[in-house]
Hints:
By secondary structure, the protein is of the alpha/beta class. It has a domain at about 1-145 and about 175-205 and about 260-270: Rossmann fold. The chain is built from 11 helices and 12 strands. The longest helix is centred in the N-terminal third of the chain and has 17 residues, at about 80-95. The chain is globular and about 50 Å long.
Amino acid sequence: MDLVLGASGHVSGTVARRLLEQGRAVTVVVHCPEQAAEWSARGASVAVLDVHDTPALTAAFCKARRAFLLNPPASPSLDVDHEERRTVHSILRAVQGASLEKIVVQSTCGAQDNPHCGDLGSLYAFEQGARETGVPLCIVRAAYFMSNWFGALSTAQQSGVFSSLLPKDFKAPMVAPQDVGELAARLLVAPVEETGVYNIEGPEPYTPEDVATALGAVLGRHVTVDEIPRPEWPEFYRRNGFCPEAARSYATMTGIFVDGRYDRPSTPLRGATDLQTCLRHQASISSR
Length: 288
């Protein structure tokens, strides 16, 4: 039995679908009961639970041999640095209470030991804790998700403008979440001995101006970028529902990314999906 955490997400959903297509027995862990019917119809077993419920999560892990682990993002209305480490702790305690033969952990390029830099810090803690379990481990470090621009589809459709904290001409490695899921599914079913860190990026890097071009092609209208100056980053996050602590943390994370204060992989794996294809696929889903 394979277990997939957070199957309602873009990456985990791809992992679960690929495993089911291979005829493997799969349990998906979801938070909301209304998500269960879709996965049951696909042939998966479903565990509806809160990842903070360590005993329930341990019981689910005890029924599996392999697991894909994703730390769910905390609500930005809360202190994300604290909340995301709470879920990391619960997940890792559950792993330690089971007898899994292999785990695959989703992480991020740029993960680093910093207590106040959003996902970069919490996923670093996730990586380190997963290593300490002693379970054979694959870590998938993804580049900047193309799905971070999905929200721009509606704003660009309405106004022809979308906001970006990244400078207009900043060329960033990006990857489609489904390509990350494809890699994670492959690693999960690979021999136990196949372990290590796997960095993945898309076919090429993109700037926010490239994003505007891709959005324009998908939406059939001219689209421009509203670049948010660095001094305004914390307030931008606050206007979009982040509490003060989360706003500061995410502004720090954005600065680390823009300044390149992380180790960029020299030979990353390459996903096949380009930015325009990824955005067009999401637009087709949103229009249904």
